[in-house]
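Suppose you are handed a protein chain with no further information: no name, no annotation, nothing but its sequence. What can you learn? This example shows the usual starting point.
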Amino acid sequence: MTNPGTVSNAHASISPGETAGGKPPWLRVKAPQRQRIGAVADLLVDLNLNTVCQEASCPNIGECFAGGTATFLIMGPGCTRACPYCDIDFDKSVRALDPSEPERLGEAVQRMGLSHVVITSVNRDDLADGGASQFVACIEQVRRRSPLTTIELLIPDFCGNWDALAAVMAGAPEVLNHNIETVPRLYRQVRPQGLYSRSLELLQRVRQGWSRTYTKSGLMTGLGENDAEVLVVLADLRAHAVDIVTIGQYLSPGPKHLPVARFVTPEQFEAFRRHGEDELGFLQVVSAPLTRSSYHAGEMQRLMQRHPR
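A reasonable first move is to predict its three-dimensional structure. Written in C-alpha cells, the prediction is:
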C-alpha cells in the first residue's frame, strides 16, 4: 500500500526534449480509424458543435467516439488563457456567445441517446460571468430534450466569481468537475492564470452549498512534480470534500508546449488509486496513464447508484 511515508518514485527515464516517439509501450495507442468515429464526428459537424476530444487532441477519441460518447466543448473553440500544456487555441478577443449553441447541444444529446453527458468549456475571461449563463442554458436544453440524462459539468474557475458559480449550480448538475491540474509548486509555470487555492475553494463551495452534487477533480502527472507532491494534492482535494479524482499522464501536444518531464508507470498510477480510495476515502479514483477527466464518464451513473445522495 502506498502512503505518504512510502512513496515510490518509479518512472520511465526521459530527457526534457523527448518526443512522442519516445513514449513507453503502455502509452502507445492506435490512431482512430475514420469508420469507428465517423457517426459521432458527422453529427458534430452537422450541428456545428465542438468537443474537447478533438480540440485538446485526446488520445481516447477513437474509443469514446466509437462508443457514442463525447465531451462537449461550449463557448469555443478559442480560449482566453494560454496554458502551456493545453492544445486548445488561444484567443483573447471579445466574442459574443452563440445563442443557438445550447439548443444544438441539447439536440445532439437527444440524437445520440446519451444517458450521461459531459459539458465543458474554454475559459472565457472576456465575459463578466465567465460564461456561466451559457452553461445554464445548456443544462436547460438537455433537461428539456432528454430529461433522464444525467449531467456532468467540467467548469473553469470563473476568476473566483462565486455568483457565477451559484448561477451554474442552480441548474442542479449531478456532477460538478473542476480540475486542479497540477501541484502547487508548478502552478505559475503550468497554469499561470489559475490559483491553486481558488480551485480548492470552488470545489469546497460546491460541496457546502449543493450537497447532493458529486464533486470531481483531476490532475496530470509528468509536468515536473514528484509522487509525494501528488499525494499532497490528493489529501488537499479530500480535505475540501471532493468525491472523485482522475489522474493521468501528461502528453505534450507539440514543441510549443511544455515537455514531458517523466512517464509515470502503470504500477504507480495504481498505487495512487489505492491510496486515494483506501487511505483517503474518495468514492472513486480513476488513475491510469491514459485517464482523462471525462474518460469513461458514463460510469458515473453506476457510482451514483452505489453512493446515493
